[in-house]
Specification:
alpha/beta; five-stranded parallel beta sheet; 8 strands; elongated
Amino acid sequence: MSFARVPKRILLGTPMRSDKLGDTLLRKRVGLAIFASGPLSSVAYAPQEIFLVLSVAGAVYFQEAVWFALAIGVLMVVVISSYRQSVREYPGGGGDYDVAMDNLGRTGGLTVASALIVDYIVTVAVSVSAGVDNLGAAVPFVAEHRVQTAIAVIAVLMLLNLRGMAESGFWFAIPAYTFVVGVLALIGIGLFRILVLDDDVKAPSADYEVVASSGEVTGLALAFLVVRAFCAGGVALAGVEQSANGVPAFREPKGRNAASVLLFMGGMAITMFAGLVTLAALTDFKVADDPATEILIDGQPAGPGYEQDPIIAQMAEAVFGDGSWPFVALAVTTTLILFFAANTSFNGFPQLGSILARDRWLPGQLRQRGDRLSYSNSIVALAISAGLLVYVVDANVSSLVGMYIVAVFISLTLGQVGLAKHWTTLLRAGTEAVARRRMQRDRAVNVVGAVFTGAVLAVVLVSDFLDGAWVVVAAVPVFFAMMHKIAKHYDQLNSELTPTAGGVTLPSRIHGIVLVSKLHTPTLRALAFARATRPDTLVALTVQTSPESTADLLREWAAHDIEVPLTVLDSPYREVTRPVLEYVRNVRVASPRDVICVFVPEYVVGKWWEQLLHNQTPLRLKARLLFQPGVMVTSVPWQLGSAEQLEARRTYKPR
């Protein structure tokens, strides 16, 4: 193994044989930890979003947050039930894309695919940025360098996924299950102390006041506030749609295993979400959109120095005590689960990318598996895109949340509509009574889901358009057009490459041209190889940039008694590429039915810095000649000693 490959082997592990693909597939317990990270991580911030919206009208409405949690819980039941149908009916891993493409046509399918691409990128960015914010509250260095920290975390997640999900699943399972146990313990102990022991459990912000920024809210304003709070809490659904795209990552039976994971994930997410909202309402939790001015401490504005702790941190301090080991453990696992929530994208996007590449909507490279049998190109592309987004928005979570919700609910809504149409089509085809009743029930679930997710999408588009939603509205058409352009290219390519009835016409003659700069071993080898191919005509071609050098070349040519005639092209301005191209074109004009084969001698070096010591004229010439019709370009390499040594070091045996 070469020294250059050592870091790669350490970071990614040794290559795996293609027949070991089954070893990379996930058991349910590992798949649950990996794919549930997204929905479960939303528990860390989705409950707080409800209170933030209600704070517009003051803390008087905070006690009503429980009803919003119950309503969102019902919506989560509907959506998760729908996705359980989806993974059974469409186990290919395309999720909403497959559903929409099959039932809503190309426009619907590509709209969902575009939204999902944006969703995956924003999921990584918002999850990592939220995790950095949580960590930054305890570690000032992280807060001061949150963008760099977020990009570093994305790079680590990329490396873990390049190693393969099955091998890295252990590292995702520990924080995921610890987070679930920690939050359930927090809720259980907190509610037990309040409802059974009648303890006076209060949030750290319980004695603060919240200033209503909009004054008294009544009538239509109150109705809009209610809808906005419901929509804000709807971010708890984020990640569910990505889990449905990960079906191919599971072991057989794939559909049943994925449906089981969705069931367990949904049950945990709903319990944790509703429990946290209830606990926050009972402990007089206070939060505001602009805490510096809207939070009053002892009757005075909190001021710019006030740090508003997130909901889980405040609940943990109220139940376990500030600085206690359960408090610290939950804070650490919350940060980790937010980081690893991005992993749902690193697992879902490669699966979707391979399907879109299979359907020729995305580049074919996204179907290629890397050394560890993961879709390496997709993983790297996702990491780079998310890193750029984090850099552009300065890792600002508020700027990302609006994009996040819109992208999620576009795919959710169209997926529900597609499934409803799917059941309608099957019902029209006629089935037995038992199956019809099941399909009618499933269709009713999808219709309800489509109505509610569509309503959430409409409200968020209106209310958050300037807060980030416009980015998704602009990005989806861009991806839509890009995929259409890619498909058009592949269609045209297929049309042009398909053999015609007459086949390929044989050329009348072959003209061989050997490019010569000086007479050395690579040139002699190219001349010998060209003669061995037996072209109808063969000439050597050199461009005169210096009369003295040309004179020396002619003397050496005569001294070696080379049988191939040498043609000299004059170049007053010392150009090499243009005279060669003009010569080749003139030959083509004189004999349009003939083929020209240009032999390019070149030597290969083994060190990157050695390459810098030589001009790149052969490379430029080959690049230009490739665009000339009727011209074949043949490289005749001569490996120098450093190249041979490099190749010897590169020899390794993949397992």
